[in-house]
Amino acid sequence: MGQVTHDQAKLLLRLYELRRDARMREAREWFIADFSAPTMDELFKKYPPGSKENASYRMVVSYWDMCAGMVNRGLIDDEFFFENNGEVWVIYDKVKELALSQRKAMGNPLILKHLLELGERFEAWREKTAPGFNANMRERFRQFAEARAARAQKP
Fold first, then answer.
1. How far apart are CA 17 and CA 136, in angstroms?
2. Which residue from 53, 67, 82, 105 puts its CA 20 to 30 A from 45's CA?
3. What are phi and psi of 14, to 5 degrees?
4. Quick one: CA dihedral 66, 105, 107, 116, positive or negative?
5. What is the per-residue burial (b if ≥16 Cβ within 10 Å, else e) of 39-72?
6. What are the pLDDT digits (tens) for 4-51?
7. What confidence tens digit (pLDDT) does each residue in 74-94 have?
8. In angstroms, rounded to a whole number, what is the distance separating the alpha carbons of residues 108 and 36?
9. Helical axes 22-34 vs 87-106, angle rounded to 10°
10. Residue 136 vs residues 82, 95, 96, 148: alpha-carbon distances, Å
């Protein structure tokens, strides 16, 4: 664990403040509960440009990619960030396949670069500190999605 500075703590608190914006909270809630698109084609089919969902997708993913870039550059200690931001892993897990599809389709290997790099380190850190937790979370999210789908089918 690195030495956490006051500046790192202030930056982390500022990033948390940005998450509290009403529109950002709405976008994050939707993304975590409902977003699912493993390919760019599916992304644009389910959440077309100009839709509220597409705007929410871009808001959430760009926010977490920005945060990841700050951590990747050493502005915030990895472990300090990981201990306080489990949501970034959820976002990473939901977009890692999509990011690879976007990179290929758009010819840009840098799409979501920061988020994917940080997500891989976070996943490894969490597996080391809490073995099996990543798999447990994936299973829990799968169960939540099934329950939402079952509720949506009821009259």
1. 29
2. 67
3. -65, -40
4. positive
5. ebeebeeebeeeeebeebbebbbebbbebbebbb
6. 999 999 999 999 999 999 999 999 999 999 999 999 999 999 999 999
7. 999 999 999 999 999 999 999
8. 22
9. 80
10. 17, 18, 18, 18
Q: How many CB atoms lie within 10 A of CB 11?
A: 17
Tokens of 143: 């169960």
Q: Do the Cβ atoms of 132 and 87 come closer than 8 Å? A: no
Joined tokens for residue 118: 């940080």
Chain-centre distance for alpha carbon 145: 17
Token pair for 86: 């489990």
Q: Which sign does the torsion angle of CA 120, 29, 140, 94 carry?
A: negative
Residue 7: count of CB within 10 angstroms of its CB: 10
Q: In the numeric block, which tokens belong to residue 150?
A: 């079952």
The amino acid at residue 83 is E
